[in-house]
């Protein structure tokens, strides 16, 4: 029980610290939710199945690591593990999508233990603070990878599956997490274990410009052909700003629009963060195609329907509308107006009834594309780290 007390105090301290650095809404939630009680119950479940839990020191890193390692120890059933890496979210709908995805992976990959990680520190902290619902505790990929290598765990095979849509900035971070792990960046892992463990990487949804784009377009059309027959179906992706357009991955949105329009010219794909492909640019392409009225259905082109879907797409914000026109920013976007309100003010039938509130992970046929990538990683060769470990050669 002394170990439980130490873990509860450590875990609660981290969660409360995260909340104190957030908005007033988060502080209010923390006051209402008995964080220590929630953590105590979860830790008790872990410790019941774990012989020993060691707090290495008093740093936040060690506290997090101890909790994650204990969690992995309590759940370990196989010699192979899959780590799903999502950017993250703080919405119940997103949590449900992640939970469903974990269940789907466990059913499809019965010889693997399956875990899920957030790559966004903001999402990790806000989820722990209970931003939109009850607190949920997620951790960054390094904690999970280190736990997989811990004494008493040491999986023989580790598959890291990116849940990103495009191979952009966040996917680069996933790659770097794996490289740091394989190269024992902190010098605290067993080098003999790292030399023998098989580490593999599952690529993002739209990794391949031809096969993946064509397959996702086919599945989306199968789902939304009826809506496209009635009006525009506008997909809202995230995108990377120009300075973060890693691998020039933003082109996938343009390629997906082109692939979708082979089925129906009413499909469009825009983003919230890609210069030249905001909702204003989607509207320009619509009007150029002669679509100046009618229904506009909006759908998140993100792994989950989270903050962007609820607010940027389907929210009621229209601060850029002065009653007659919009005031765009220097990049040509009206960022304080949702997609719903934007098209509505322009005279289209775009309202709560035309919102299609599903993240891509909630669409089984699209989720299967990610799972196909996982299977491809399993069937392929382990990642080659020789040159990154021996740069002089």
Strand content: 5-15%
Summarize the helix and strand pattern as letters: HHHHEHEHHEHHEHEHEHEHHHH
Q: Give the strand order of the largest sheet, numbering strands 1, 2, ... along the chain.
A: 2-1-3-4
Major beta sheet summary: 4 strands, parallel
Describe this entry's structure for a reader.
This protein is of the alpha/beta class. 47% of the residues lie in helices and 11% in strands. The protein has 16 helices and 7 strands. The protein has helices at residues 2-20, 24-32, 35-48, 60-75, 92-108, 121-129, 141-148, 169-182, 191-196, 211-230, 251-260, 279-288, 307-313, 339-345, 364-379, 386-389; strands at residues 80-86, 112-118, 157-162, 198-202, 231-237, 267-271, 295-300. A 4-stranded parallel β-sheet has the order 2-1-3-4, with helices on both faces. A 3-stranded parallel β-sheet has the order 6-5-7, with helices on both faces. Helix 1 crosses helix 6 (121-129) and helix 3 (35-48) crosses helix 4 (60-75). The radius of gyration is 22 Å and the shape is elongated. The protein starts with a helix and ends with a helix. Mean pLDDT is 85; it is low at 1-57 and 386-393.
What's the arrangement of secondary structure elements?
Layout lengths: L1 H19 L3 H9 L2 H14 L11 H16 L4 E7 L5 H17 L3 E7 L2 H9 L11 H8 L8 E6 L6 H14 L8 H6 L1 E5 L8 H20 E7 L13 H10 L6 E5 L7 H10 L6 E6 L6 H7 L25 H7 L18 H16 L6 H4 L4
Parallel strand pairs: 1-2, 1-3, 3-4, 5-6, 5-7
Helix pairs in contact: 1-3, 1-4, 1-6, 3-4, 4-7, 7-8, 10-11
């Amino acid at each position: 029980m002394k170990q439980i007390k130490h873990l509860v105090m450590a875990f609660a301290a981290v969660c409360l610290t995260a909340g104190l650095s957030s908005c007033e809404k988060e502080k209010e939630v923390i006051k209402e939710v008995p964080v220590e009680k929630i953590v105590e119950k979860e830790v008790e479940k872990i410790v019941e199945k774990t012989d020993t839990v060691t707090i290495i020191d008093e740093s936040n890193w060690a506290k997090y690591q101890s909790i994650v390692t204990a969690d992995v120890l309590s759940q370990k059933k196989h010699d192979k593990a899959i780590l799903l890496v999502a950017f993250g979210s703080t919405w119940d709908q997103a949590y449900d999508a992640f939970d469903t995805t974990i269940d789907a992976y466990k059913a499809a990959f019965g010889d693997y233990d399956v875990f899920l990680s957030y790559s966004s520190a903001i999402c990790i902290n806000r989820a722990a603070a209970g931003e939109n619902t009850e607190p949920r505790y997620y951790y960054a990929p390094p904690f999970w990878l280190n736990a997989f290598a811990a004494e008493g765990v040491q999986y023989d095979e580790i598959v890291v599956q990116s849940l990103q849509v495009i191979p952009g900035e966040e996917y680069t971070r996933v790659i770097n997490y794996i490289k740091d792990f394989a190269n024992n960046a902190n010098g605290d892992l067993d080098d003999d274990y790292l030399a023998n463990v098989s580490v593999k990487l599952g690529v993002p949804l739209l990794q391949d410009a031809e096969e993946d784009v064509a397959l996702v377009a086919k599945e989306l059309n199968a789902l939304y052909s009826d809506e496209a027959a009635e009006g525009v179906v506008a997909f809202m992706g995230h995108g990377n700003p120009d300075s973060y357009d890693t691998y020039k991955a933003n082109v996938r949105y343009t390629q997906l629009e082109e692939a979708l329009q082979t089925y129906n010219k009413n499909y469009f794909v825009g983003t919230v963060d890609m210069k030249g492909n905001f909702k204003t640019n989607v509207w320009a392409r619509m009007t150029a195609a002669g679509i100046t009225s009618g229904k506009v259905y909006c759908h998140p082109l993100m792994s989950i329907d989270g903050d962007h879907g609820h607010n940027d797409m389907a929210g009621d914000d229209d601060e850029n509308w002065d009653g007659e026109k919009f005031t765009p920013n220097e990049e040509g976007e009206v960022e304080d107006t949702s997609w719903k309100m934007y098209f509505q003010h322009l005279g289209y039938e775009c309202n709560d009834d035309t919102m299609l509130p599903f993240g891509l992970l909630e669409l089984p046929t699209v989720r299967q594309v990610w799972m196909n990538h996982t299977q491809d990683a399993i069937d392929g060769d382990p990642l080659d780290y020789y040159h990154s470990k021996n740069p002089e050669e």
